[in-house]
């Protein structure tokens, strides 16, 4: 089995896959349907024919630059495992910066705009029992994945088709979003794993990358409770533009937070409290 793994890693490296050896190991564990920590013992035994077929198919898919998470069907994010498909963005570690900051804020209700797999919304609700949340997305297929994740995790969340705020009613203590922020001119520079396999409408507004923030800024104050908070993920060069948009829409106290690599990653702002309130 070790030789099979080595051959697979060479195939992936030849296809331009970075981390080919690690991906081969992950896909072998998937093919054998065992946790990765049990691979050492499994490698000493012959590879069963059915597992060999699954492994070969998985390596062929990865050589076409399909992300590992799509091949194995899930991705770990925050404290949970989320189902992912080609209809959703792959939850990324840098987005955990948004979750961590949201959990520092006071809220009992949360709206997730462009929820995708539901990773942000469900991570937040899992940490705050008794709170309520609504996740909206323009893609019914993405919402179907979010529903599967909510059911798998045993978390109750509202999910609805909406083009940003178009179908949203009421006000929330917190609004979060990881919107499409890649400019159309930047798309060609993305890795094949992202550019070819993830949903385009979740990546780019087909414009300057700020279209989603304009829509969010325009509707935020009408859907935030007085003194409520807005937290959005941004691209690492967008802090100035996004804070200006939020301030121009009447949101106060804008601040920028870095991810673990030190890049600007989250912008937080607050709706003005009612007169006389703290």
TrEMBL record:
Pfam families: MTS, PrmC_N. Its EC number is 2.1.1.297. InterPro entries: DNA_methylase_N6_adenine_CS, HemK-like, N5-glutamine_MTase, PrmC_N, RF_methyltr_PrmC, SAM-dependent_MTases_sf, Small_mtfrase_dom. SUPFAM superfamilies: S-adenosyl-L-methionine-dependent methyltransferases (SSF53335). It is an enzyme of class 2 (transferase). S-adenosyl-L-methionine binds at residues 114-118, 137, 164, 178. Residues 3-73 form the Release factor glutamine methyltransferase N-terminal domain. One of its GO terms (biological process) is methylation. It comes from the Bacteria. Substrate binds at residues 178-181. It catalyses: L-glutaminyl-[peptide chain release factor] + S-adenosyl-L-methionine = N(5)-methyl-L-glutaminyl-[peptide chain release factor] + S-adenosyl-L-homocysteine + H(+). GO terms for molecular function: nucleic acid binding; peptide chain release factor N(5)-glutamine methyltransferase activity. Residues 99-188 form the Methyltransferase small domain. Keywords: Methyltransferase, S-adenosyl-L-methionine, Transferase. Belongs to the protein N5-glutamine methyltransferase family. PrmC subfamily. Methylates the class 1 translation termination release factors RF1/PrfA and RF2/PrfB on the glutamine residue of the universally conserved GGQ motif. This is Release factor glutamine methyltransferase. The gene is prmC.
